[in-house]
């Protein structure tokens, strides 16, 4: 009898959708030259957002937090100088953001034609705990 009850409990627990889930919002900003390269840099920033989101592995933490990391991307796509400029004050979350940037960096494409030698990017990772689905 206990075995049947536990089996039913496991089925219910694994089949019921969670009421809450975590959410990640990433916004990438850049300090690029205006003009013909601006549209290409904007599209490049959108691509960076997708790559950073795919590389981010959220830590187990119980608070919603914002982390901002700045970094430079050279014309050939090489990333350098990743720096946390707005800390979450939760070291494991800050480390997860830096790790995401470093994991995603090898996949960064070259900057678009007409771009400057390097572009400075700021990525805001807004990690929200328990968003209602």
Which helices and strands appear, and what pairs or packs with what?
Blueprint: H1 2-15, E1 20-30, H2 36-55, E2 65-74, E3 79-86, H3 91-104, E4 118-132
Antiparallel strand pairs: 1-4, 2-3, 2-4
Helix pairs in contact: 2-3
What does this structure look like?
The chain has 133 residues and is of the alpha+beta class. The chain has one domain (20-132): Fusion Protein Consisting Of Minor Coat Protein, Glycine Rich Linker, Tola, And A His Tag, Chain: A, Domain 2 (2-Layer Sandwich), CATH 3.30.1150. Helix content is 36%, strand content 33%. It has 3 helices and 4 strands, in the order αβαββαβ. The protein has helices at 2-15, 36-55, 91-104, and strands spanning 20-30, 65-74, 79-86, 118-132. It has a 4-stranded antiparallel sheet with strand order 1-4-2-3. A hairpin with a 4-residue loop joins strand 2 (65-74) and strand 3 (79-86). Helix 2 crosses helix 3 (91-104). The longest helix has 20 residues, at 36-55. The radius of gyration is 19 Å and the shape is elongated. It starts with a helix and ends with a strand.
């Amino acid at each position: 009898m206990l075995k049947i009850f536990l089996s039913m409990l496991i089925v219910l627990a694994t089949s019921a959708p969670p009421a809450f889930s975590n959410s990640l919002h990433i916004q990438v900003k850049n300090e690029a030259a205006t003009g013909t390269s601006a549209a290409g840099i904007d599209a490049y920033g959108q691509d960076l957002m997708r790559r950073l989101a795919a590389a981010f592995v959220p830590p187990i933490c119980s608070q919603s937090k914002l982390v901002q990391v700045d970094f430079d991307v050279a014309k050939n796509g090489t990333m350098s100088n990743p720096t946390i400029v707005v800390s979450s004050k939760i070291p494991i979350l800050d480390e997860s953001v830096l790790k995401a940037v470093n994991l995603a960096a090898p996949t960064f494409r070259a900057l678009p034609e007409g771009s400057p030698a390097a572009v400075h990017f700021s990525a805001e990772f807004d990690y929200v705990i328990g968003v209602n689905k």
